[in-house]
Amino acid sequence: MEVTKALAALQPLYGKDNIEIVVEDGSRVRGVVRSMKMTQALTKPSVKMERADGEIIKVPFDTITEIIDHNQTTNGDAAAAPRS
After folding, report:
1. Interatomic CA distance for residues 59 and 35, integer angstroms
2. Is it the case that residue 16 has pLDDT exceeding 90?
3. pLDDT at 31
4. What pLDDT does 20 receive?
5. Is the pTM of this model over 0.90?
6. Can you spell out the DSSP letters for 14-49?
7. What confidence tens digit (pLDDT) does each residue in 27-57 have?
8. How far apart are CA 43 and CA 27, in angstroms?
9. Which of 4, 10, 38, 66 could form a disulfide with 22 if both were Cys (CB 3.0 to 4.6 A apart)?
10. DSSP code of 83?
11. What is the largest CA-CA distance in the chain?
12. In this structure, are residues 30 and 18 in contact, taking their beta carbons and an 8 Å threshold?
């Protein structure tokens, strides 16, 4: 997912619980959006997710393929950000 699209999709979810991020290799991280870093020297733009067990997972924006907000429901299905 493009960095600007990932940032736009994640900004309204900042601090919300029950958010799931799917990355390129198929792994998933579900938890609370804790931090979004855009412009630090020598680092890739990334989001930090806190899982239910308290572990912090750092996910680079360019590896994100899908963002799912399990808090919102539309006709019984979870709403998801479109894949790019």
Report:
1. 10
2. no
3. 94
4. 94
5. no
6. BT-SSEEEEETTS-EEEEEEEEEE---TTS--EEEE
7. 999 999 988 776 566 677 888 999 999 999 9
8. 22
9. 66
10. P
11. 43
12. yes
